[in-house]
Amino acid sequence: MKRQILTSAVGIITALLVGLIIMAVQGYPAFDSYYQLFNYSLFSKFSFFSTLAKTAPLILTGLSAAVAFGSNAVNLGQVGQFLIGGISVTAAGLYIDLPPVVMIPLLIFIALLSGALYSGIAAWLRLKFNMDEFITTLMLNFVAQYFTMYLISGPLLDKELFSPMTRPINKSGWLPDLGGLDSTIIISIILLIIIYFIWHHTKAGYEWKVMGSNEMFAKAGGANIDKNYLKIMLISGALAGMAGAMLVMGGVQHRFLKGIGANYGWDGVMIAVVADSSIIGTAFYSFFFAMIQTGAMGMELETSVPSEFVLILQSITVLFVVASRKSAHLLLNRINILLRMKNIKSGGGIKEDEFID
């Protein structure tokens, strides 16, 4: 854990310094730009709550990818599962109107179920026909994109408007606004805690982690690989589906619009990679990326640095954090090898407490 924190800190600080140099070389006020970036994302109630609202779906798409990658399953279908979860909740919210105490849990269940079923298609194809889920999850993204576009341009189109979108769902399905705080962040944190508990404190979570490290060892130890794989894919899809539902149930639009997914799906994959499939790391990087994305427009407004600069900053962060982690791993392995050689030459044997983790 200490090594992960250290490598993350080194990677982020290095990325920020490189970003500073890039802005300075381009003639922008680098220090003021960073100040405005954080000012518009953290230093007021509205900006901080806006950052939390953007963090919520990123946590879930990040967890969706982290659970899959950490278990040696490949799910790159967060984009499609996100859209299917969102459109399913929208359709239900348009035609069902129940008291909020019933309506909100029902829509949450529909989001989780629809996302799980959509990822389950790729899982079934893998288990039944040995089709590579790397390909099937990617292809299903396009199916979801075209299918949802058809729905919001035809059967579910709000005919009073000129852009593809649905009517707002019934108000009973809206998540409450807690004094300016989008309650989607609360749902994300609850699901984060549940996944953390499963991952670290249950037999299933242990088997999934072992599968991620060595599938053959897990199989030799009695783990049912196919059964666990199916569970992982369903949970991964459910999380991404819930992320899509949040943009409909929460926020201010409460409808499914063209482009609603933005980059949440792929950002989630990126977050899982930079967090090395760590549950807590996923939450941290979700907040970090949400923070710089939220502050980007304010930075552009105040200092004329293009908001697209945050895309460069995100890419540099991923590069340096992953590089720092790999470099630290190689360095510590080298040190351990040297310690072992030294002990062997001195005839002292190998002592476990001399190894560096």
Distance between the termini: 10 Å
Q: For the largest sheet, list the strands in their spatial order.
A: 1-2
Name of the top-level CATH class of the largest domain: Mainly Alpha
Helix-strand category: mainly alpha
What is the total number of structural domains?
A: 2
Q: Count the strands?
A: 2
Describe what you observe in this structure.
This protein has 13 helices and 2 strands. Strands 1-2 form a two-stranded antiparallel ribbon. A hairpin with a 2-residue loop joins strand 1 and strand 2. It starts with a helix and ends in an 11-residue tail after the last helix. 44% of the residues are buried. By secondary structure, it is mostly helical. The chain has 2 domains: 64 residues; 254 residues, ABC transporter involved in vitamin B12 uptake, BtuC (Orthogonal Bundle). 73% of the residues lie in helices and 1% in strands.
Would you summarize the structure shown here?
With 357 residues, this protein is mainly α. The protein contains 13 helices and two strands. The chain starts with a helix and ends in an 11-residue tail after the last helix.
Compile the SSE list and pairings:
Blueprint (H helix, E strand, L loop, with lengths): L1 H24 L4 H10 L5 H25 L8 H18 L4 H30 L3 H21 L23 E2 L2 E2 L1 H18 L1 H11 L1 H6 L4 H25 L14 H11 L4 H25 L5 H38 L11
Keywords for this entry:
2 domains; 73% helix; globular; 13 helices; two-stranded antiparallel ribbon; 357 residues; ABC transporter involved in vitamin B12 uptake, BtuC
